[in-house]
Amino acid sequence: MTISITTFLSPNFLILADSSDGTSSIIWLFPILAALIGWVTNYLAIKMLFHPREEVKVLGITLQGVFPKRQKQLALKLGTLVSEELLSMEQITEKIREHATSDETMDAIGKRIEMTIREKLVHAFPMLSMFLSDDMVEKVTNLFRKELKDFLSQSVDELSTKLENNLDISEVVREKVEGFSSDKVEDLLFNLMKKEFKFIEVAGAVLGFAIGCVQVALTFSL
Questions:
Q1: Residue 26 neighbours by CB under 8 Å, 6+ apart
Q2: How many domains does the chain have?
Q3: Which long-range contacts (CB under 8 A, 24 or more apart) does 131-138 make?
Q4: Which among 216, 221, 217 is positioned nearest to 33, based on CA atoms?
Q5: Which distant-in-sequence residues (6+ apart) come within 8 Å of 183 by Cβ?
Q6: What pLDDT is stored for residue 43 in this prediction?
Q7: Angle, in degrees to the nearest 10, between helices 89-100 and 134-166
Q8: 24, 29, 33, 34: CA torsion to nearest 10
Q9: Which of 40, 49, 147, 171 sits between 20 and 30 A of 127, alpha carbons compared?
């Protein structure tokens, strides 16, 4: 019986086939083995994004997960991305200005003023009920509403200026991300990209299975 090398399952995986009967029963395992290798390889690649969390030296080579090793760079880049592309301090203060004196806000304030006049003020000074007509209540409410709107507008402008000068979103995000533990980073990214990571694992198995099927076809064609 003569034995020859028919083909390979992967660059480092050679299978011997019996040339006397044309093939070997192990050849039919090629797709399954290739799928297993593809899945395990991608699974380990994903795990190595986060592990080992601390530097480990193996045969003089320093090993550490990609994210733990580059967490500071990730924090810096993420902070810059958020402040420049996603959410700037100017956008936040603009929204504050917009909502602080909006019609909806002022309507709510007007209703609260009117309720205070009709219930609490009259309760505190019962004699006022003799002089407070609906028309007078409306005039007082509108007066306070106008004054409060001017006050809110001025206060919000001052607050917004202080926020823009003193609050650096980029720095806040950087400090927050940099302060995350490795476990926290892993949990966040896995929750965010769980489906994508699973797809990568399955894709490795499917691709490996396809390569194994091609291997079987090439073996029988020889």
A1: 15, 17
A2: 1
A3: 138/114
A4: 216
A5: none
A6: 93
A7: 170
A8: 80
A9: 147
Q: Which residues, given as ranges, of the chain have pLDDT below 50?
A: 1-23
Q: What residue has token string 């609050």?
A: 167
Question: Looking at residue 81, what is its pLDDT?
Answer: 85
Q: How far is CA 49 from CA 40, 42, 66, 162, 215, in A?
A: 14, 11, 5, 40, 31
Domain interval for residue 80:
3-221
